[in-house]
Amino acid sequence: MLRLTCAPNLALARLWADALGVEGIGASVQREFLAGVAGQLPPDQCLPEIWIDHPEQEARARQLLHDLQHVPQQRWRCACGEQVEGGFEQCWQCGCWMPQ
Question: Are 27 and 21 contacting, i.e. CB atoms less than 8 angstroms apart?
Answer without folding.
Answer: yes
